[in-house]
Amino acid sequence: xxxxxxxxxxxxxxxxxxxxxxxxxxxxxxxxxxxxxxxxxxxxxxxxxxxxxxxxxxxxxxxxxxxxxxxxxxxxxxxxxxxxxxxxxxxxxxxxxxxxxxxxxxxxxxxxxxxxxxxxxxxxxxxxxxxxxxxxxxxxxxxxxxxxxxxxxxxxxxxxxxxxxxxxxxxxxxxxxxxxxxxxxxxxxxxxxxxxxxxxxxxxxxxxxxxxxxxxxxxxxxxxxxxxxxxxxxxxxxxxxxxxxxxxxxxxxxxxxxxxxxxxxxxxxxxxxxxxxxxxxxxxxxxxxxxxxxxxx
Length: 297
Known about the structure:
By secondary structure, the protein is mainly α.
C-alpha cells in the first residue's frame, strides 16, 4: 500500500502536477497578500479621515470593529478561493485515480504483482489525500499568516478552520474515487462536477432560506442537498470558526445582528451534519473497495 502511495506521488511529480500546483499556489498567495494589504490600508485611511462609515439603524460599528469586519470578509473570500481550488483538485485527482489506468491497460501490469486491489486503492487514496492535506495546510496557513501580519487578524479557531477544510477535500476525494471505480473517466468527471455544482447551489438556497428567518422550506431543501454531499456544509462550518468572537459581539451590540455572507456562516455546524461528514469518506472508500473488487479489468 505504501509502495503504491509512493508511486502515485512520483507519478504526480513526473507529470509536473506538483510543480504546477506550487507555482499557481505561490501566485495566489502573492495576489491575496497584495490585495489584502492595499484594501486594508485604504480602508484604514478612509476611517481615519471619516470617509468610511458602516452601520445600521441600531448603531454603527466602531472604526476598530469596522476594520476587523473588513479583514474578516477578505479572509473569508481568500479561503473560499483556497477551498474552491482544493475542491477542484480533489475531484480531478479522484476522477483520474482508477478508471484511466483501467482504460489504458496499465492496471493489468500493476495488479500482476503481489498486490491486492484493496492495497492499490488505499495506496492511491493515501497519496492523493496527503498531497491535498499539504496543499490546504500550506495555503490556508499562508493566508491567515498574511492577515495576521498586515491587520493583526486572529481567527476564532484556526485549528478547526483548517481541520474542517481538510475534511472537505477528503469528502470530495473519496466520492470521486468511488465514481472512478464504477464509471468511465469522462462520465465520472461530468457527474462529479455536476454534483459539486448542485451542492454549491444547495448552500446558496439554504442561505437564502435564512433571509428572512422562517423560510423553512428552502432551508430544509439546502440541508437535504448537503446530505447528498456534505462538502459545502463542511466549508460553511469552517467559515464560522473564521469569525473573531469580538466581531460577533460588537456587531450584536451595535444592533446589526448576525453578519450575513452568502459564502460563509455565522452559525456553527450542526453536530449531526458533522458526524455525517466524518463518516462520509469512510463510507465512500468502503463502497469503492467493494465495487473495485467486482470490476472486470
